């Protein structure tokens, strides 16, 4: 809740050092890392996501876990609550990890923008 407010305030007060969340990163994703970072790959195909009618907000790197959860729920209906706890836990953990990764990437981009501005002023 507070993150959204601080991001919008920072973007309004100092737009030159605020990362754009609607665009790809401006810096090399491998810069500053000793070993190359593993690129994230979508495991669910667009056809599967269309078949299960996933909403645009659900079509992320965790879609394959959500599809497994939906399969389990249809298979075990109407008692899917406890039967699909493992799938729900895997999907929740994936969503949490994805959220943390996006926060870290935003913060990395923000710090690199501040660094770039300091270098230009010096």
Describe this structure in words.
Belongs to the complex I NDUFB7 subunit family. This is NADH dehydrogenase [ubiquinone] 1 beta subcomplex subunit 7. Residues 1-38 are annotated as: Disordered. The chain is built from five helices and no strands. The model has no long low-confidence stretch (mean pLDDT 87). It has 122 residues and is mainly α. The longest helix is centred in the C-terminal third of the chain and has 37 residues, at 85-121. α3 (63-75) packs antiparallel against α5.
Which structural category do the helix and sheet elements fall into?
mainly alpha
**Low-confidence regions:** none
Main beta sheet: none
Report the average pLDDT across residues: 87
Radius of gyration: 19 Å
Distance between the termini: 36 Å
Q: Tell me the number of helical segments per DSSP (H or I, 4 or more residues long).
A: 5
Portion of residues in helices? 55-70%
Query: How would you describe the shape?
Result: elongated
What percent of residues are in strands?
under 5%
**Element pattern in H and E:** HHHHH
Keywords: Disulfide bond, Electron transport, Membrane, Mitochondrion, Mitochondrion inner membrane, Respiratory chain, Transport
Region (Disordered): 1-38
Main location: mitochondrion
Membrane topology: Peripheral membrane protein
Highlighted features:
mainly alpha; 59% helix; 122 residues; single chain
Layout: helices, strands, pairs:
Layout: H1 2-13, H2 46-51, H3 63-75, H4 80-83, H5 85-121
